[in-house]
Specification:
elongated; 60 residues; two-stranded antiparallel ribbon
Length: 60
């Protein structure tokens, strides 16, 4: 995952899984995610930004 600060926006880039896997609940498919909180190289007020991302699509 890549995190950058552009102007006043935090921009995240994640690879998309070409074969999305079912979520733990089974209600959606996970197309991109961080697998929990991760520290990025983006810095705000002298501190590293941590993010957690789940990008999903509906099952049906």
């Amino acid at each position: 995952m890549k995190a950058t600060i552009t102007g006043n926006k935090l921009v995240l880039e994640l690879p998309i899984d070409p074969n999305p896997q079912p979520s733990k609940s089974g209600k959606t498919f996970l197309v991109a995610g961080t697998g929990g909180f991760i520290k990025t190289t983006a810095i705000i007020n002298g501190k590293s930004v941590s993010v957690a991302v789940n990008a999903t699509i509906p099952r049906a």
